[in-house]
Amino acid sequence: MILASQSPRRRELLSIIVLDFRVIPPHVDERPLGGETPSCYVERLAKAKAMAVCAEAGKGENVIGSDTTVSVDGKILNKPVDQSDFLRMMRLLSGRKHQVYSGVCVFRDFVTYSCVVRTDVQVRMISDREALDYWASGEPKDKAGGYGIQGSAARFIERIDGSYTNVVGLPLVELEVLLNDAS
Protein backbone atom coordinates (compact mmCIF):
# COMPACT_ATOMS: atom_id res chain seq x y z
CA MET A 1 0.00 0.00 0.00
CA ILE A 2 1.18 3.51 -0.85
CA LEU A 3 0.05 6.74 0.79
CA ALA A 4 0.45 9.60 -1.69
CA SER A 5 0.82 12.35 0.89
CA GLN A 6 3.34 14.49 2.73
CA SER A 7 0.98 14.96 5.68
CA PRO A 8 2.17 13.55 9.02
CA ARG A 9 -1.45 13.58 10.19
CA ARG A 10 -2.52 11.32 7.31
CA ARG A 11 0.36 8.94 8.09
CA GLU A 12 -0.74 8.76 11.72
CA LEU A 13 -4.37 8.18 10.84
CA LEU A 14 -3.64 5.56 8.18
CA SER A 15 -1.46 3.63 10.63
CA ILE A 16 -4.58 3.10 12.75
CA ILE A 17 -6.16 0.87 10.09
CA VAL A 18 -3.18 -0.24 7.96
CA LEU A 19 -0.02 -1.65 9.51
CA ASP A 20 2.25 -1.77 6.47
CA PHE A 21 2.41 1.05 3.94
CA ARG A 22 4.95 3.30 2.33
CA VAL A 23 4.76 7.02 1.73
CA ILE A 24 5.49 8.66 -1.60
CA PRO A 25 4.83 12.41 -1.66
CA PRO A 26 3.02 13.46 -4.85
CA HIS A 27 3.88 16.55 -6.84
CA VAL A 28 0.53 18.10 -7.74
CA ASP A 29 -0.58 21.69 -8.37
CA GLU A 30 -3.06 22.31 -5.56
CA ARG A 31 -4.53 25.58 -6.80
CA PRO A 32 -8.33 25.54 -7.14
CA LEU A 33 -9.74 25.90 -10.64
CA GLY A 34 -11.99 28.87 -11.34
CA GLY A 35 -15.51 28.24 -10.05
CA GLU A 36 -14.57 24.87 -8.56
CA THR A 37 -16.68 23.81 -5.57
CA PRO A 38 -14.91 22.60 -2.42
CA SER A 39 -16.27 19.09 -3.01
CA CYS A 40 -15.05 18.89 -6.62
CA TYR A 41 -11.73 20.45 -5.63
CA VAL A 42 -10.82 17.85 -2.98
CA GLU A 43 -11.98 14.93 -5.11
CA ARG A 44 -9.94 16.16 -8.09
CA LEU A 45 -6.83 16.57 -5.94
CA ALA A 46 -7.25 13.20 -4.21
CA LYS A 47 -7.38 11.51 -7.62
CA ALA A 48 -4.47 13.58 -8.96
CA LYS A 49 -2.31 12.68 -5.96
CA ALA A 50 -3.02 8.96 -6.32
CA MET A 51 -2.35 9.10 -10.06
CA ALA A 52 0.88 11.06 -9.53
CA VAL A 53 2.48 8.11 -7.75
CA CYS A 54 0.60 5.15 -9.28
CA ALA A 55 3.61 4.23 -11.45
CA GLU A 56 5.36 3.21 -8.21
CA ALA A 57 2.64 0.68 -7.35
CA GLY A 58 2.98 -3.00 -7.95
CA LYS A 59 0.17 -5.16 -9.32
CA GLY A 60 -2.63 -5.39 -6.78
CA GLU A 61 -1.18 -2.61 -4.62
CA ASN A 62 -3.45 0.18 -3.42
CA VAL A 63 -2.45 3.83 -3.79
CA ILE A 64 -4.28 6.25 -1.50
CA GLY A 65 -4.62 9.92 -2.39
CA SER A 66 -6.40 12.43 -0.19
CA ASP A 67 -6.96 16.15 0.09
CA THR A 68 -8.74 18.24 2.71
CA THR A 69 -9.99 21.80 2.63
CA VAL A 70 -12.02 24.13 4.80
CA SER A 71 -14.92 26.05 3.31
CA VAL A 72 -16.93 29.05 4.49
CA ASP A 73 -19.91 30.12 2.37
CA GLY A 74 -18.59 27.93 -0.44
CA LYS A 75 -15.19 29.65 -0.44
CA ILE A 76 -12.12 27.40 -0.19
CA LEU A 77 -9.70 28.15 2.67
CA ASN A 78 -6.43 26.33 2.12
CA LYS A 79 -3.22 26.71 4.11
CA PRO A 80 -2.54 30.30 5.17
CA VAL A 81 0.23 31.97 3.17
CA ASP A 82 1.18 34.36 6.00
CA GLN A 83 -0.05 35.83 9.29
CA SER A 84 -2.37 38.29 7.56
CA ASP A 85 -4.02 35.49 5.56
CA PHE A 86 -4.32 33.43 8.74
CA LEU A 87 -6.06 36.29 10.60
CA ARG A 88 -8.48 36.70 7.69
CA MET A 89 -9.34 33.00 7.98
CA MET A 90 -9.78 33.11 11.76
CA ARG A 91 -12.12 36.09 11.44
CA LEU A 92 -14.16 34.19 8.85
CA LEU A 93 -14.38 31.09 11.06
CA SER A 94 -14.93 32.87 14.39
CA GLY A 95 -18.38 32.37 15.90
CA ARG A 96 -19.81 30.38 13.03
CA LYS A 97 -20.18 27.05 11.34
CA HIS A 98 -18.02 25.98 8.41
CA GLN A 99 -17.44 22.81 6.42
CA VAL A 100 -14.42 20.54 6.13
CA TYR A 101 -14.26 18.49 2.94
CA SER A 102 -11.93 15.59 2.25
CA GLY A 103 -11.60 13.77 -1.02
CA VAL A 104 -10.24 10.24 -0.82
CA CYS A 105 -9.15 8.09 -3.73
CA VAL A 106 -7.93 4.51 -3.81
CA PHE A 107 -6.25 3.53 -7.08
CA ARG A 108 -5.67 -0.17 -7.75
CA ASP A 109 -4.84 -1.87 -11.03
CA PHE A 110 -6.09 1.02 -13.21
CA VAL A 111 -9.38 1.41 -11.33
CA THR A 112 -10.18 4.34 -9.02
CA TYR A 113 -12.53 4.29 -6.06
CA SER A 114 -13.27 7.70 -4.57
CA CYS A 115 -15.57 9.64 -2.30
CA VAL A 116 -15.95 13.05 -0.68
CA VAL A 117 -16.70 13.45 3.01
CA ARG A 118 -18.14 16.59 4.59
CA THR A 119 -18.11 17.53 8.27
CA ASP A 120 -19.72 20.65 9.75
CA VAL A 121 -17.63 22.40 12.40
CA GLN A 122 -18.87 25.09 14.80
CA VAL A 123 -16.19 27.49 16.06
CA ARG A 124 -16.66 29.70 19.11
CA MET A 125 -15.82 33.41 18.97
CA ILE A 126 -12.04 33.87 18.72
CA SER A 127 -10.39 37.17 19.60
CA ASP A 128 -7.55 38.52 17.47
CA ARG A 129 -5.25 38.07 20.49
CA GLU A 130 -6.16 34.37 20.76
CA ALA A 131 -5.68 33.94 17.02
CA LEU A 132 -2.27 35.65 17.09
CA ASP A 133 -1.17 33.52 20.05
CA TYR A 134 -2.22 30.44 18.11
CA TRP A 135 -0.31 31.65 15.03
CA ALA A 136 2.79 32.19 17.17
CA SER A 137 2.68 28.50 18.17
CA GLY A 138 3.50 27.57 14.55
CA GLU A 139 0.75 24.96 14.47
CA PRO A 140 -1.61 26.58 11.93
CA LYS A 141 0.96 27.26 9.21
CA ASP A 142 0.54 23.99 7.29
CA LYS A 143 -3.13 23.33 7.88
CA ALA A 144 -6.16 23.89 5.67
CA GLY A 145 -8.26 26.68 7.14
CA GLY A 146 -5.37 27.59 9.43
CA TYR A 147 -6.20 25.22 12.28
CA GLY A 148 -5.75 21.66 13.47
CA ILE A 149 -8.61 20.22 15.50
CA GLN A 150 -6.24 17.59 16.94
CA GLY A 151 -3.95 20.27 18.38
CA SER A 152 -4.34 23.34 20.52
CA ALA A 153 -7.08 24.73 18.24
CA ALA A 154 -9.39 22.13 19.82
CA ARG A 155 -10.19 24.81 22.41
CA PHE A 156 -11.90 26.86 19.66
CA ILE A 157 -14.22 24.06 18.47
CA GLU A 158 -17.69 24.00 20.04
CA ARG A 159 -18.97 20.95 18.15
CA ILE A 160 -18.70 18.92 14.99
CA ASP A 161 -21.36 17.11 12.98
CA GLY A 162 -19.71 14.28 11.09
CA SER A 163 -16.35 12.57 10.97
CA TYR A 164 -13.63 13.73 13.37
CA THR A 165 -10.92 11.97 11.32
CA ASN A 166 -12.16 13.87 8.27
CA VAL A 167 -11.42 17.16 10.04
CA VAL A 168 -7.95 15.88 10.95
CA GLY A 169 -7.36 15.04 7.28
CA LEU A 170 -8.25 11.43 6.43
CA PRO A 171 -11.76 10.04 6.97
CA LEU A 172 -11.02 6.51 8.15
CA VAL A 173 -14.50 4.96 7.97
CA GLU A 174 -14.94 5.99 4.35
CA LEU A 175 -11.36 5.04 3.46
CA GLU A 176 -11.84 1.55 4.85
CA VAL A 177 -14.98 1.14 2.70
CA LEU A 178 -12.99 2.18 -0.38
CA LEU A 179 -10.15 -0.22 0.51
CA ASN A 180 -12.68 -3.05 0.89
CA ASP A 181 -14.25 -2.16 -2.47
CA ALA A 182 -10.81 -2.20 -4.12
CA SER A 183 -9.80 -5.60 -2.73
Mind explaining what this structure looks like?
The chain is an alpha/beta fold and 183 residues long. It has one domain: Maf protein (Alpha-Beta Complex). The protein is 34% helix and 26% strand. The protein has 6 helices and 7 strands, in the order βαβαββαββαβαα. Strands 1, 2, 3, 4, 5, 6 and 7 form a 7-stranded mixed beta sheet that branches. A hairpin with a 2-residue loop joins strand 5 and strand 6. Helix 3 crosses helix 4. The longest helix is centred in the N-terminal third of the chain and has 16 residues. The mean pLDDT is 95.
How much strand content do the residues show?
Answer: 25-35%
Helix fraction bin: 25-40%
Tally of separate helices: 6
How many strands?
7
| CATH architectural name | Alpha-Beta Complex
| CATH T-level topology | Maf protein
| Shape summary | elongated
Brief overview:
The protein is an alpha/beta fold.
Secondary structure elements and pairings:
Layout: E1 2-4, H1 8-17, E2 22-23, H2 38-53, E3 63-72, E4 75-77, H3 83-93, E5 97-108, E6 111-123, H4 128-136, E7 157-161, H5 164-168, H6 172-182
Parallel strand pairs: 1-2, 1-3
Antiparallel strand pairs: 3-4, 3-5, 5-6, 6-7
Helix pairs in contact: 3-4
Feature tags:
alpha/beta, Maf protein, 6 helices, 7 strands
